[in-house]
What we know:
single chain; mainly alpha; Growth Hormone, Chain: A; two-stranded antiparallel sheet; 8 helices; 2 strands; globular; DUF1275 domain-containing protein; DUF1275; transmembrane helix; membrane
Amino acid sequence: MRNHVQLSESIPVISLLAVTGGFLESYSFICRDQVFANCQTGNLVLLAMYFSQRDFFQAFTYTIPVIAFIIGILLTNFIRDTISQKFLHWRQITVCLEIILMLLVGFIPCGPRNIVATTMIAFSCSIQVETFRKVKGTGCATTMCTGNLRSAVDFLYRFFIRKEKSALYQSSRFLTIIAMFLGGAIAGGFCTNFFSYRAVWFTLIMLVIVFCLMFSRPDGEAH
């Protein structure tokens, strides 16, 4: 009996989403008041730092994306548990929502409304990270690198020290995802410098491809 891998856990889908995650990280930092829309750890640290300095307005800037991230996680779980899958899979619905959000962000000029844009990006990234949580059955993230780097090094250790042959291939998966994330971050930096706030529309290319790929259901396997 063959082992089936859900399409949502495949290397092509996860890689495209990693490019999107890296792109949005550069975009939000360069164009949207140096807020880390993907990585809430950085926002929490900055929130605490500004709060300790009694700069409450600046602290508030970093609070909103964190709240948006939390709401996005809750909404994703609600969609997964309640939405019918007669035509679209629940993951496709979340990708559609992310596409709409990124389309709207591209209409928001840089300036006083940056908080609106970063909130929408954080909300979108939380949906992505909650929807796509594995690569070929192993936990991973497409909007940050810390956990993926840990997994890559862990599998390398198991290959070189424990002599587990399959560990090298598993490590290469995570190194690929990290490379795609970094590529997305580099592309995000270049595109943002050239196209400013509209650069976010480049992420629509990856998201639309992911959406289309998920219509494929190999061996009748639910994706």
